[in-house]
Amino acid sequence: MFESLQERLGSILNGLTGRGALSDADVSAALREVRRALLEADVALEVVRSFTDKVRAKAVGAEVLKSIKPGQMVVKIVHDELVDMLGAEGVAIDLNAPSPVVVMMVGLQGSGKTTTSGKIAKRLTDRQNKKVLMASLDTRRPAAQEQLRQIGEQVSVATLPIVAGQTPVEIARRAVQAARLGGHDVVILDTAGRTHIDEPLMAEMAEIKKVSSPHEILLVADSLTGQDAVNLAKSFDERVGITGLVLTRMDGDGRGGAALSMRAVTGKPIKLIGTGEKMDALEEFHPKRIADRILGMGDIVSLVEKAAENIDAEQAAAMAKKMQSGKFDLNDLAAQLGQMSKMGGMGGIMGMMPGMGKMKDQMAAAGFDDKMFGRQLAIISSMTKAERANPDLLKHSRKKRIAAGSGTNAAEINKLLKMHRQMADMMKAMGGKGKGGGMMRGLMGGMAQKMGLGGMPGMGGGMPDLSSLDPKQLEALQKQAGASGLPGLGSGGLPGMPGGMKLPGLGGPGGLPGLGNRKK
Fold it and tell me: CB neighbours (10 Å) of residue 314?
């Protein structure tokens, strides 16, 4: 979503940090470029004007221009103002009300209200152990109520039985009563939308609000619609009174202006963002993390959280034990590739690593993308059990059979085997020394060598060192991960990475695997 804005702001701010001293003219010229970049990203004009005025007021002054690193001071000011524009602190859905808590979903047709209702219901059920009831109030769109019922079955959440002929207001009243009688903690009302805002829609929303007394009114907006989404939010807030925003399709290739503008224009917090089609592709909105991503600082905390959610602790512990003996076969490689895919693939992981956003073009040019994971997993899946356990068995005739079964060719199989050998040698060397090492580190190292990136400054055969994290980032990591790593995930670090995926300053040596050897 923010890639083009990230590239533009990155190049502008890098020009400032590369200088030893700054003048008022340097800062003004840079801010003109920042203004242009934000306008091109479809950020609302009044938001851009306010943002640049605030940055200029703080950046043009003797304290900044005469500081030891004035360029970095300006970057910090831009970062802080971005966080402030996005809402300073993340705000979750508020469930502090007598049961059942009514959550009313509003928005235009096609914005993703029904799917988002299912995602929120699944999130509340799985993470907060809430008993949720969903009800579709959309009597206009064909099969809208049936769609919500099927989503409810998919995520194992109860839905209000469909009664033909009832009006949206009658359904809302019945849903609240059914939730109260059924002992539900939360009732989600999925209201109807229109292709555009009109008076009958607003009157219907106001009537539903009157009979259901919702504690939360969430506006679901498509983040790809740009400035129209901002006008939409203002209209709904004035007529219905929204309590928060949910932005969908944040994984798209839009310019990101809606996300940056809506909070500033409406004053209402962005509570959740949809990051994909799957029912678990919903994340809480953390302004500081988004600002970090926009400025290319990465998002280590989200990476840690994603790893904790997607990596099985028992499987990781078994892998760790196996790795201590220096063994690493193609089954292990397949498991590791699968784990990385669950965490968002290579692009998703590297997008959260500080300074790695700029490498995406190099990765694409090297043919290094998430499709490569699929091809490699297909190759391994086409092997027999004996071949996966002992790759030395793979001679020409076997490779020919595997290529036919996986839709690849002998050259791709040879590349996979070469990467596996490099990683196996690395694991054996680390296992023999009793360091544990880390499977992910070996994976990153092997892939970096395949891309020809092993010699890049700071790569360390894998990914860049995190020693540049500032104290605020480390403090945030300590709050998220705990002083001794993630609890219950083995050896005080991240599972699947023997020896622990340790972060600098967070309880023990290590550093992230693939980030170079951090000494004890």
Answer: 9
